[in-house]
Amino acid sequence: MEAGDGTEETPLPLVLTRFQLSEEYGFLLPEPLTELPAPYGPWMEIARGLPQLIASHRLRSQVHQMPQLSAQHLRGRKELHLAHLVLSFITMGYLWQEGEEGTVKVLPQNLAVPFWEVSQALGLPPILSHTDFVLANWRRKNPNRNLDTIISLPGGDSLRGFILVTLLVEKAAVPGIKAIIQAIRAILQLDEETLHKALQELAEAIRDMSKALKRMHDYVDPAVFYNVIRIFLSGWKDNPAMPDGLIYEGVSDEPMAYSGGSAAQSTVLHAFDELLGIRHSEESTAFLHRMRDYMPPPHRAFVEEIHCAPSLKQHVLSSGDARLCTAFNQCVSALAEFRSYHITIVTKYITVAAAKAKAGQAEPGDMADPSAVKPPTALEAKGTGGSHIFSFLKSVRDTTREGMISA
Asked: Where would one find coiled-coil regions in this protein (predicted)?
């Protein structure tokens, strides 16, 4: 931020660039790097071959032969994000290569130490998070601007679809992120017309996020998601398959526990909740706040800044303006609908898929992925982030609805 001229005038509170947010991409990393500098070739080589190495059960031996590299030569945020993406994917593959029953207790030093160094530099935990999996894991495949992932895991087209549809949900949120800034400025400037317009834009963005989420059905096979993909998103906190956590060799002699990747790590919904004054149950709030530790610190700071801004709900209530009330309620309603639809997706991709896997009803082709191991059971009733998935999602959806202003 630029130094002021010494006057006491309060600056406009929210500028996207202050929080490493982009006008075009929102929380997504703009145009991520796809190659690390030459010295880090051994990391890139392993990361690019992950699906095959895991399928052939060779990843662990490849990691053991990997040279010990220091993260100190990485320069700038984009290099660090790509390094974190690469090391987090390698780590998940290493941990879960043999399924739930073949876990390890120690992450070897040549992987653990640089992963820890990169994580410290970014302010992220040393595990795969939403930031790695989605925000920093995309590239343009060709001049037609078709999207693809940078690094992959077992799951083929379904994994690619899962990552890219989630990315499209994040992209659809961008006008809503800008609307947050317009709304807070409008409250400070008592500009009801701008506030009304910002709320309409926010509601529209949330509806567009729901439309994007519906594309999951077109690109992701539930059996592949449940039987193949999901385990690689699982962490070592609140996971019965790894009750003691994981020792990061060369970092700590004591095991550490981190939650797996979760949609709750997306900053978007946290930001919308704060703006709209949505108050979740004590248990849900505790989990959501823990998930903020998995966001890049500037994104976390953005949510905190919204939390500290004047209350939108109080402003709308005290304005007595029926148009503002209606626009506010449309935002809350759209957010509740988005959360309802997320429950629909989770039901199809976890509950129904789990029941089919248990009953041995998986159709031929569902388990066609050669790396498919025994379907995971440790997290049947939990999300990969460790939450009790349905009680959490329903509670959060219901408390969102309760945020409406009654006539």
From this structure: 188-215
* CATH number of the structural domain spanning residue 109: 1.20.58.480
Scanning 347-382, the segments in alpha helix (DSSP H) are 353-358
CA–CA distance, 233 with 133 (Å, rounded to integer) = 9
Task: Mention every residue, 6+ apart, whose C-beta is less than 8 A from residue 139.
Answer: 32, 34, 147, 148, 149, 150
- Indicate whether 254 belongs to any domain: yes
Burial of 343 from C-beta contacts in 10 A (0-12 / 13-18 / 19+): middle
Looking at residue 374, its amino acid is K
pLDDT in tens, 71-117: 989 999 999 999 999 999 999 999 999 999 899 999 999 999 999 99
C-alpha 309/C-alpha 52 separation (Å) is 49
Instruction: Report the Cα 277 to chain-centroid distance in Å.
Output: 22
**219 three-state secondary structure:** helix
pLDDT digits (tens, 9 = 90+) for 230-275: 999 999 998 889 999 999 999 999 999 999 999 999 999 999 999 9
Q: 19 with 301: CB under 8 angstroms?
A: yes
Inside any domain, residue 275: yes
DSSP β-ladder status, 106-107 and 247-248: parallel
Residue 253, domain extent = 40-357+383-403
Residue 114 lies in a domain: yes
Q: Residue 357: pLDDT band by 50, 70, 90 thresholds? A: confident
| Structural domain contains residue 182 | yes
Judging by DSSP bridges, how do beta strands 139-140 and 147-148 pair with one another? antiparallel
How many domains does the chain divide into? Answer: 1
Name the strand (E) or helix (H) holding 333: helix 322-346
Q: Supply 406's token pair.
A: 């009654």
pTM for the structure as a whole:
0.91
Residues 326, 330, 332, 333: is their CA dihedral positive or negative? positive
What one-character DSSP code corresponds to residue 148? E
User: What sign results for the dihedral spanned by CA atoms 45, 46, 47, 52?
Assistant: positive
Closest CA relative to residue 248, chosen from 46, 73, 87, 45? 87
Query: Which residue's entry shows tokens 């800034």?
Result: 181
